[in-house]
Amino acid sequence: MTSELPRALELPCAHGPPVGRGRIRSIPEDFIVRERLGFEPDGEGDHWLLTVRKRNTNTQWIAAQLARLAKVHPRDIGYAGLKDRNAVAEQAFTLPVRCAITDWSSVTGDGFTVLRAERHRRKLQRGALKGNEFEIVVREFEGDPTALAERLARIGERGVPNYFGPQRFGRGLTNLKRAYAMFRGDAVVKDRLVRGFALSAARAQIFNAVLARRVESRLWDRFVPGDVANLDGSNSVFVPEATDATLLERCQRLDIHPTGPLWGGGDSLATDEARSIEKSVANEYDVLCRGLESAGLRQERRALRVRVQALEHEIAGRDLQLRFRLGRGSFATAVLHEILAGAFADESDDGEE
User: Fold this and answer.
1) Facing residues of 21 across strands?
2) Is 84 a catalytic residue?
3) Are the beta carbons of 97 and 46 closer than 8 angstroms?
4) Using one digit for the tens of pLDDT, what is the confidence trace for 45-102?
């Protein structure tokens, strides 16, 4: 494990070396995340759909506070994804209308404020969002403005590798270390949430390693024989009949993307060269692969590339301001990794899903 862990955050860039450096997350307000659900509240139903602004707290903490205030069970609280701890985030939560609070419009708590409350028919499920908007301030930015503008234009045209960010692995790679300990029989983890974080970190490590291999080979944003395709902005995947001109054109305009494995049991949809690359990497992470299969997880796919939309920047004094949108499940740090040296430094935040 000692040789495997250091590589978890040593991931190659796709567009060349970083073009600058600076400080991110100096204060929570330097990293703003706004959730985009992609739908409007129903206006009726048995649930409250709350829009909550949280600061310097994690999503589970807010969910627990809402459950306590409403006097409902924590499992009655719904949310679509985890948001960064060291940030200001606006995200949605649902809870039953039949609870201890009838007017949520002015409710505040430790680290959060309810911005809006509307009726909704369904409990919010994990993954039920379109994506996230980010506003990020890089303090004391050092870099050539022309090179920065060129890099951002390239990112806007081609996207970035869809790496899992360091948040997925926990501070000091705690989640990944726990996964190795579980799979080697050195630890028993009974807490479902903690175990889930460990399993997710193991999957992320294998996926990132496959993606890094393809970045190094300049194959991260193009199809190779046997690839499985993902339709941009969806969880839909399909096996192309052939790598023809139409497929290549759709890939070039970011309508579809090649995918990599979220490891688990069962046969992979990938074949030929794509499968050969994945098997080669999997052999290096045999402990993780076998552990995930034994845990009952099934093979899934994730896009190797993510489109970066509405990308804007401004340099004000010594600060760089960035604004952009990403689809669900993707990490803002994957964008920063292509711009700033040290953007994948070890962190302890929640995911950006």
Assistant:
1) 142
2) yes
3) yes
4) 999 999 999 999 999 999 999 999 999 999 999 999 888 888 999 999 999 999 999 9
For residue 109, what is the enclosing H or E element?
strand 108-109
* Look-up of token digits 């692995």: 169
Which residues in the chain are classed under CATH 3.30.2350.20?
Answer: 1-35+129-353, 39-120
Rounded CA-CA distance 48/157 in Å is: 39
Asked if residue 176 lies in contact with residue 8, where contact means CB atoms within 8 angstroms, the answer is: yes
| From 84, 221, 227, 232, the catalytic residue | 84
| Residues 137, 242: Cα–Cα separation, whole Å | 44
CA distance 333 to 328: 14
What global pTM score does this model have? 0.92
Q: Which residues of 54-79 are buried (b: 16+ CB within 10 A; e: fewer)?
A: beebbbebbbebbbebbebeeebbbb
Q: Give the CATH number of domain 1-35+129-353.
A: 3.30.2350.20
The tokens 């046997």 sit on which residue?
A: 226
CA end-to-end span of the chain: 28
Fold designation for 39-120:
Pseudouridine synthase (3.30.2350)
Distances (CA, A) of 259 to 110, 218, 305, 315, 348: 40, 14, 8, 35, 27
> Which distant-in-sequence residues (6+ apart) come within 8 Å of 245 by Cβ?
none
Nearest-10 crossing angle of helices 272-284, 192-216: 120
Contact 136, 318 (CB under 8 A): no
